[in-house]
Amino acid sequence: MEKEFVGKCKACNSNIYCNSGFIEGVVQEDKTLLCFECSNKNEKEPKTN
Ligand SMILES: [Zn+2]
To answer: Taking the domains of the chain in order of start, what are their residue ranges?
Structure first.
């Protein structure tokens, strides 16, 4: 399976790869990366805006 290094999670610093065009994380609006685990944590944070 093709696996390409994309970058590191901004929050936990774990490596994020792209598997056959599918990124194992989320690209934020500021172009930083978050793994799914950290992304899910963020989603649970109460939003104040
Ligand atoms: Zn993370």
So the answer is: 3-44
